[in-house]
């Protein structure tokens, strides 16, 4: 296989920032074209502006840069999505359709589509959620991702497109901030613990959600994308798990390092979203098909987060 030429959409998002760098470390700086609707100032070249709804621009970039793989991360997350449902649907679903169509037309090698635990809903079994379950998402974000999964599966079956996808849990990392998700509290809590030794949490203290450290999320993504084609049995989102915890449990873990840390709870509309997701995930298919195994649990993640954030935000 010749060297890949990768386009990342949403490269300035929470995962995009870290994944773009990881892909560049792996395949070379110029092998990865970062694109986003916003520029952050410290973007590493090559970078191009891209509104994912601008199909013409996307086509030009794919053609001019001879793109062979797309990591399509551009999306609006669960909480922000509820403020503008139609715009969210447009960006999340029509953006994906443009990518899939171009991938087919340009005969691309591979496409990565990030799905999420937000595809689950109130009818989904909550503990050790199996791979194939009823999906009745409660947010537009979840609706767009579960429909997106179907489209990925369709493009694979119908056109042989090599689409691969993961249902990410909440992702926690020190390198970047999430924007507008329901699991954002689990990143904010570390920042506030270090800066102010207090945090007001927007979820109830006993709301358990599946979570994952950024390093594991990046490893999973690259492992999945590099796995032999024959081993990929699932073309919608693979269930993926690393840890599950409640706001109280993460607060207690942080308190082991910052004893004065104090957390108060003031649940808002995001509580209802969180309550519709599941508590823990059965990811045995990912383990079996492409050897998935996480490295971080709550304790080791907390040590690593605090260590890195101390050096970057204080
Ligand atoms: N972290 C995402 C969110 O909270 C879930 O995919 O919206």
Q: How does this model look, in words?
A:
The structure is a single chain. With 314 residues, the protein is an alpha/beta fold. It folds into 2 domains: 6-171 and 212-239, Rossmann fold; 176-210 and 242-279 and 296-312, UDP-galactose 4-epimerase, domain 1 (Alpha-Beta Complex). 42% of the residues lie in helices and 16% in strands. The protein has helices at residues 14-27, 55-64, 78-81, 85-105, 140-159, 185-196, 214-226, 247-255, 270-276, 284-290, 298-313, and strands at 6-9, 32-36, 47-49, 69-72, 110-116, 163-168, 170-172, 198-201, 209-213, 238-239, 243-245, 262-265. Strands 3-2-1-4-5-6-10 form a 7-stranded parallel sheet, with helices on both faces. It has a 3-stranded mixed sheet with strand order 7-9-11. The protein has a two-stranded parallel sheet with strand order 8-12. Helix 2 runs parallel beside helix 4 and helix 4 runs parallel beside helix 5. The model has no long low-confidence stretch (mean pLDDT 97). Residues 77-78, 116-118, 141, 168, 170, 181-183 line the site of serine.
């Amino acid at each position: 296989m010749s060297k890949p030429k990768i386009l990342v959409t949403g490269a300035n998002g929470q995962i995009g920032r870290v994944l773009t760098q990881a892909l560049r470390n792996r395949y070379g700086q110029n092998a990865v074209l970062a694109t986003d609707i916003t520029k952050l100032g410290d973007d590493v070249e090559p970078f191009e502006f891209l509104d994912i709804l601008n199909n013409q621009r996307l086509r030009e970039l794919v053609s001019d840069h001879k793109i062979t793989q797309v990591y399509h991360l551009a999306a609006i997350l669960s909480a922000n999505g509820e403020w503008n449902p139609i715009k969210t649907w447009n960006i999340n679903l029509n953006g994906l359709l443009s990518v899939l169509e171009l991938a087919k037309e340009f005969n691309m090698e591979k496409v990565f589509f990030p799905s999420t635990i937000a595809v689950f809903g109130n009818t989904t079994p909550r503990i050790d959620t199996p791979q194939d379950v009823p999906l009745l998402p409660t947010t537009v974000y979840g609706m767009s991702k579960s429909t997106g999964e179907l489209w990925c599966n369709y493009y694979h079956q119908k056109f042989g497109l090599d689409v691969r996808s993961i249902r990410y849990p909440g992702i926690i990392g020190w390198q970047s901030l999430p924007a507008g998700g329901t699991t954002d509290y689990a990143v904010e809590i570390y920042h506030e613990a270090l800066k102010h030794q207090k945090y007001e949490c927007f979820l109830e203290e006993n709301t358990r959600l599946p979570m994952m450290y950024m390093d594991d999320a990046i490893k999973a993504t690259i492992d999945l994308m590099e796995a032999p084609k024959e081993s990929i049995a699932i073309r919608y989102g693979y269930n993926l798990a690393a840890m599950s915890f409640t706001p109280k449990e993460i607060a207690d873990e942080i308190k082991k390092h910052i004893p004065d840390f104090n957390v108060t709870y003031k649940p808002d509309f995001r509580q209802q979203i969180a309550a519709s997701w599941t508590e823990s995930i059965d990811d045995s298919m990912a383990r079996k098909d492409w050897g998935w195994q996480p490295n971080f649990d709550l304790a080791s993640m907390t040590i690593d987060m605090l260590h890195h954030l101390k050096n970057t935000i204080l």
